[in-house]
Design brief:
single chain; about 10% strand; globular; alpha/beta
Length: about 400
């Protein structure tokens, strides 16, 4: 039997480089692939090489005038507009080409599933979930997952669930499908009163034609693994069962980690691994096994992102890596060369327990008020009882 999943990767994807000291450094992708390879996760796996998405494909989500601005920005003056040339979204050489290749990466993953070649595919360079129709936003030039979802809707899928576990609200994908009842967007993120982009409140539930199609879980700062998983399990499985998606698309940002420098949630690598395994199970249970996974945020470049996303790739391929697995010496030697003062962990775990108490309808933990707020905002729109934990 062949592998259950496909992996999209090419070193050309490292060209999406915002430069200098920008937090979204491509080294995190390079180190992930190197670590997954050193662990044996990619043994015998043919990495699928993406091409640049065409203008027609990108214009499923973005305005043609915006594409022109992105293309021209490296040659233009400082005031290019469209959110370009800012500290978050600096202009860089070949910006359109590099961004189009990221879109191509997630489109290739989508095509693998739509064609029946595989049930699962992962595009770790993807997950640029903030980009809007006519402007760059939050390190994101083009919204690769929104393009992929749009393409999937025209190629055999009528109901798609999008699950965003980045620390930041998945605002760009939500905006793209806010009034489309065929797409259920679910985002669990740090409370928008305390973090960019300032959206993703529980009362954002979809447009007039798609009430209930947007679900937002604004978690309090310092939420850790157990509380995060408690909230996830109290909200997500019930909605997926009600919606009955044919495919699950997940954005797997790892900036929820307690060491991440840009946010304030407190998850561990063990929590990330538990999320991926849970999502894999939900795809099997509610989406015919169809699962498209992508990367996203994550700015603890050496200690967190490579380990967490190696777990993601392993989960997609059913090659789960035990937490007590030591980091391969060939990988740590490479990191020592590029960052000789870095203190690396020794294993693929942070040694944290991910056991949690399921929500029982009461207010036993700090996160429970968020659970109730989200359930009361959206559950009735799906015919579910927000106050009954059995729903």
């Amino acid at each position: 039997m062949g592998l259950p999943g496909s992996v999209v990767w090419d070193s050309a994807l490292l060209g999406y480089d915002l430069g200098g000291e920008h937090p979204l450094h491509p080294i995190r992708l390079d180190l992930t692939i190197r670590l997954a390879s050193a662990l044996g996760v990619l043994d015998g796996v043919e990495l699928l090489v993406p091409e640049e998405a065409t203008d027609e494909e990108i214009e499923r989500i973005h305005d043609a005038g915006y594409l022109a601005a992105v293309r021209e920005a490296p040659m233009a003056g400082w005031d290019v507009g469209h959110g370009l040339g800012t500290p978050d979204n600096p202009v860089f050489d070949n910006m359109h080409e590099a961004s189009a290749r990221v879109v191509g990466s997630s489109l290739l993953a989508a095509r693998q599933i739509a064609s029946g070649v595989t049930k699962r595919a992962v595009s770790i360079a993807g997950g640029l979930h903030h980009a809007m129709r006519d402007h760059a936003h939050g390190f994101c030039v083009y919204n690769d997952l929104a393009v992929a979802i749009s393409w999937l809707l025209d190629n055999g899928f009528e109901r798609i669930a999008y699950l965003d576990t980045d620390v930041h609200h998945g605002d760009g994908v939500q905006a793209a499908f806010y009034d489309d009842p065929r797409v259920l967007t679910i985002s669990l993120h740090q409370n928008p009163l305390t973090l960019f982009p300032g959206t993703g409140f529980a009362d954002e539930t979809g447009g007039p034609a798609a009430q209930g199609s947007a679900v937002n879980v604004p978690l309090p700062p310092l939420t850790g693994d157990r509380a995060w998983l408690r909230a996830f399990h109290a909200i997500v499985p019930s909605l997926l069962e009600a919606f009955q998606p044919q495919l699950l698309v997940s954005q797997c940002g790892v900036d929820t980690h307690h060491e991440d420098p840009l946010a304030s949630l407190s998850l561990s690598v063990d929590g990330h691994r538990a999320i991926y395994r849970t999502v894999r199970g939900l795809a099997e249970q509610y989406a015919g096994g169809n699962w498209l996974a992508a990367g996203g945020g994550g700015y603890a470049l050496l200690r967190v992102v490579p380990r967490s996303w190696s777990h993601l790739i392993a989960t997609v391929l059913d090659r789960d890596v035990a937490g007590d697995t030591s980091l391969p010496s060939e990988w740590t030697r490479f990191v020592d060369k590029i960052a000789p003062t870095a203190e690396l962990p020794s294993t693929m775990s942070d040694n944290q327990s991910v056991d949690f108490e399921p929500w029982d309808g009461e207010d036993g933990e700090r996160v429970d008020s968020v659970i109730k707020e989200t359930r009361r905002a959206v559950f009735p729109l799906h015919g579910l009882d927000p106050d009954d934990p059995r729903d």
